[in-house]
């Protein structure tokens, strides 16, 4: 891709948790030895299967991620912005690396995406947030338009005027937003799928209609779905064939026109 050819890059790389990420599904089938009894005494057994998965463990995580961040810097235009989505395991290392790569003066924000879902530890404070580091290519001319961002409800609407309460408030650098519901309409079945609301906020603030948005850890394709709904162009890349299948089905279902391009190596398919 040409230098300085995109306005916005959002990447949500594997978090290096050291375990395989998977989204499983259960089904039942009739079985004479099944443990569940149903209608008219018929016996059934539960069949568990892994629907989608990927390996989230790297022997040299930063050897993997650093060259991709260098490419992100090359590809951003002068008004462009990078959003790097990580968790507590790696975000502090990323901050040091991006300070060196972009320059400390190009650091714009550390966004905390907070949610309250899933298991809670009783041996420490439960980890219920992700970190999104925001860096701009040129701190003197980057694009940012908070007026276009979806507003959110006031936590204490009684403390503001009715007009303000109805309008809602601009988000701060702490974003309270639920995860994708396991039973919701957004769900694709892909593990670690991110909510449309998070990507809409990113894209609204740091790009204009017609701009190019790039995501080279595309996963379930949420970046593309949000970009298309906001009249942005998008490029999605992923090496996981299951990701490409999910993205293709998702875009087709939404009526989004796109080109599917396979990389020369069969091990590295890409969606565009």
How is the topology of this model organized?
Layout (H helix, E strand, L loop, with lengths): L5 E6 L7 E12 L5 E2 L5 E14 L4 H15 E11 L4 H12 L4 E8 L14 E8 L25 H6 L6 E3 L19 H11 L5 E4 L6 H8 L3 E4 L4 H14 L5 E3 L6 E3 L1
Helix pairs in contact: 1-2, 4-5
Structural class: alpha/beta
Q: Taking Cα atoms only, what radius of gyration do you get, to the nearest Å?
A: 21 Å
Global geometry: globular
Specify the biggest β-sheet.
Answer: 7 strands, mixed
| Number of helices, where a helix is a run of at least 4 consecutive DSSP H or I residues | 6
Q: What distance separates the N and C termini?
A: 12 Å
CATH superfamily of the largest domain: Vaccinia Virus protein VP39
CATH class of the largest domain: Alpha Beta
Task: Supply the CATH architecture of the largest domain.
Answer: 3-Layer(aba) Sandwich
CATH topological fold name of the largest domain: Rossmann fold
Q: Which ranges are low-confidence, i.e. pLDDT below 50, for 5 or more consecutive residues?
A: 21-27, 46-56
């Amino acid at each position: 891709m040409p230098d300085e050819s995109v306005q916005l890059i959002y990447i949500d790389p594997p978090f290096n948790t050291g375990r395989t990420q998977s989204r499983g599904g259960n089904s039942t089938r009739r079985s004479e030895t099944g443990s569940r009894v149903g209608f008219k005494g018929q016996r059934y057994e539960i069949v568990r299967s892994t629907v989608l998965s990927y390996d989230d463990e790297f022997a040299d995580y930063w050897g993997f991620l650093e060259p991709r961040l260098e490419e992100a810097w090359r590809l951003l235009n002068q008004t462009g912005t990078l959003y790097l989505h990580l968790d507590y395991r790696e975000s502090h290392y990323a901050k040091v690396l991006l300070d060196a790569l972009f320059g400390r003066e190009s650091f714009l924000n550390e966004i905390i995406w907070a949610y309250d879902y899933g298991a809670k530890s009783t041996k420490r404070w439960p980890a219920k947030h992700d970190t999104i580091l925001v860096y701009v290519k040129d701190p003197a001319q980057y694009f940012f338009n908070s007026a276009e961002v979806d507003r959110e409800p006031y936590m204490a609407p009684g403390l503001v005027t009715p007009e303000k309460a109805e309008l809602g408030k601009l988000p701060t650098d702490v974003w309270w937003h639920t995860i994708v519901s396991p039973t919701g309409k957004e769900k694709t079945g892909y593990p670690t799928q991110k909510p449309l609301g998070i990507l809409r906020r990113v894209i609204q603030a740091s790009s204009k209609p017609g701009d190019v948005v790039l995501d080279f850890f595309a996963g379930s394709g949420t970046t593309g779905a949000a970009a298309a709904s906001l009249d942005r162009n998008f490029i999605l890349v992923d090496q996981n064939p299951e990701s490409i299948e999910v993205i293709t089905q998702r875009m087709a279902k939404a009526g989004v026109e796109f080109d599917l391009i396979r990389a020369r190596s069969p091990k590295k398919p890409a969606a565009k």
